[in-house]
Amino acid sequence: SSLKVTGVDFLKSQNTRQHHTDGYNIKNLVVRRGQPFQVQVSLNRELRAGDKLSLRFGIGENPVKNRGSLLSLKPEREDVNGWKISLVKKNGKECLLSVSSSPDAPVGKYNLHVKTGANMFKPENGVIYLLFNPWCEDDVVYMANEAQRKEYVLNDTGYIYVGTAWSIYDRPWNYGQFEEFVLDACMYLLEKSKLSLTDRKNPANVSRAMSALVNANDDNGVLMGSWSGNYISGTSPMDWIGSVTILQKYYKTKKPVRYGQCWVFAGVLNTVMRCLGVPSRCVSTFNAAHDTEENLTVDVYLNEKGEKLNSLSFDSVWNFHVWNDVWMRRTDLPEGFDGWQAIDSTPQEQSQGLFQCGPCPVKAVREGDVYLPYDGKFVYAEVNADQVYWLVKKVNGKEKYFKLGTEIKDIGQNISTKAVGQNRREDITREYKYPEGSKEERMSMQRAYSFIRPVGMGPRSGYASSRQTLGGNTQPLVLRDPVTKTGLHLQITNTEALHPGNPLEMAITVKTSTPGNWTVELTGSCQLQYYTGKVEANLGTIKETIRLEGTSEMQIPLKIAPDAYMKTLSSMDGEVLILVTAIAEVKETNDKLTKETSMRFEYPPITVQMPETAKLYNDFTCALMFKNKLNVTLENCKLLVEGLGLFKMTTFDQGDIMPGRIMKSEIVCTPTRLGEKKLVAKLISNQIKGISSEKAIVVTE
């Protein structure tokens, strides 16, 4: 009788354990390339010497052999495109086969059919998902360190660092790469990318395509960006606590989800890359330059009151910006650029006609090799541009620009990511740049400049006419501004905690350090701005003339009453910061100095109370408490709660919480997975955006 297949067992639990894919919440078999997996084939009779048996793996719409999209594998034959199968053992009508895929196979979904002679068998759930393999030495995403693989591939929770260089804080984020439909959403993005099979072998091409598809620009991708402050027609970027809801919604509707800002784009791209098997981390840079003209300077314009002006420049300095690093060997580049590569899905600038960015080798940024693909100049400028301050004065009814000075150390500070295996911030600035002022830094900078060739150093506003007021100012670039003759120094601090509803109490300290009598004109201003550097409101200014002698200092207070800012703060939806700018001018020497500091509001905490351990499938109760210690009513409060493997994302309306009142909520959680799991809670209201907290619990059998 002719040989027929009666069934195929994908031995899911054993294979997925060996392939570190047992976390994926999916019926199908998920395996990693370059590593063998086993399938058990049941037949209608015993396998004999002359029988023909082959496994056929097809990828894409119409798989064909000559395009490499259909692989027909026979036991003990030579490999096909680096794949081969072998017979492990025969046992009556059963035979156990081992399948080894190539370590550079295209990633994606493969349809398996088993052919015996003229008979073709199509197994149930016969679609196999093939991913990149950081555990396989021959895969270009190979990562040698197990603790790093656990963090950068398998950890489904983490932190994204936000705030200001002055006060960094962690925002818990649920990546959730193993949750239901997330892998399917990633596979849908791969198909949507129209990458060729050859391109799908290479994580550099895949990560570049994903950086384009996570934003909705050009291609109806996952997330629509918005920095408008009005998010009525969607979800405010502040209100997400993870990627899962976003990717599930996108997969279901196939329409962009509204709305994202940089940390949301980075959180989702991190999920996508980890889900596909590429080691990935979220990277936050404080004071990140968005240099539209690639000349490594960003201009900041101040009026005579010391207030920053919005409208003049297309460049900006973001208080923080978040992108991703992905780990791989770069086979397309000269040696020395393997390892972390920066990719960015926040739609800022087009690259080769699409909103995509990277992969750009982090080592190339450090060495100044900005000509290397992809987008080296843009990433280099984000962490290395200089800020040039200009004072805009009206002279005879015309606006004139006066250069106040250049700040060379501020951009690209405290580059941060979550530490491996620990809930703390790791500073990775040294991976991106050499120490400020070191010989290596200067060499790297000169190298970068030789590829970028900055044009003149005039101010770059959107208006050509204003350029002329400087008269051909194209002096060669000075890497360091000269120290002022008076040793003038400015420092900005807050003297009381910055609680919404309280007066904002800050101070500007002016110091001189050289002998002589000095008259200093101090101008200071306080503004509310979004994290992108866009000013939303002027809150107040001071102007004082102070006299200092030799080495001395004086502290000038700057105080803003609650009435001056609370209304604006309630109407702003987003990451809002307090910007203080100071300009000091020494009468005797004409020295000018400017300094700005951004600070964030401080909020009372949410406390999460729950047991330290729980048993699988046994419910436990979790209590969430919040006391409003502010002296303003928090209107329209919502509590968002999500715990991967514990509690599905839910929003609870809490109404208004008066000053001094305590909010208490109890939820019942059901642990569905083993190991350490986290519950994340977030409180949002009109007055405050995003107080978050988390608590871990260990789930045992």
UniProtKB/TrEMBL annotation:
GO-annotated molecular function: metal ion binding; protein-glutamine gamma-glutamyltransferase activity
Query: PROSITE patterns this protein is in?
Result: TRANSGLUTAMINASES (PS00547)
**Residue span, Transglutaminase-like domain:** 254-347
Question: Quick check: keyword Calcium in the entry?
Answer: yes
> This protein's superkingdom?
Eukaryota
- Keywords tagged on the record: Acyltransferase, Calcium, Metal-binding, Transferase
Instruction: Tell me its EC number(s), please.
Output: 2.3.2.13
Q: Which Pfam families match?
A: Transglut_C (PF00927), Transglut_core (PF01841), Transglut_N (PF00868)
**What does the UniProt cofactor note say?**
Binds 1 Ca(2+) ion per subunit.
Q: What cofactor is needed?
A: Ca(2+)
Annotated active site: C262, H321, D344
Q: Where does Ca(2+) bind?
A: N384, D386, E436, E441
Instruction: State the reactions this protein catalyses.
Output: L-glutaminyl-[protein] + L-lysyl-[protein] = [protein]-L-lysyl-N(6)-5-L-glutamyl-[protein] + NH4(+)
Cite the InterPro entries for this sequence.
Ig-like_fold (IPR013783), Ig_E-set (IPR014756), Papain-like_cys_pep_sf (IPR038765), Transglutaminase (IPR050779), Transglutaminase-like (IPR002931), Transglutaminase-like_sf (IPR036985), Transglutaminase_animal (IPR023608), Transglutaminase_AS (IPR013808)
Family in the record: Belongs to the transglutaminase superfamily. Transglutaminase family.
Question: What binding partners and quaternary form does the record give?
Answer: Homodimer.
Would you tell me the protein name for this molecule?
Protein-glutamine gamma-glutamyltransferase 4
Name of the coding gene: Tgm4
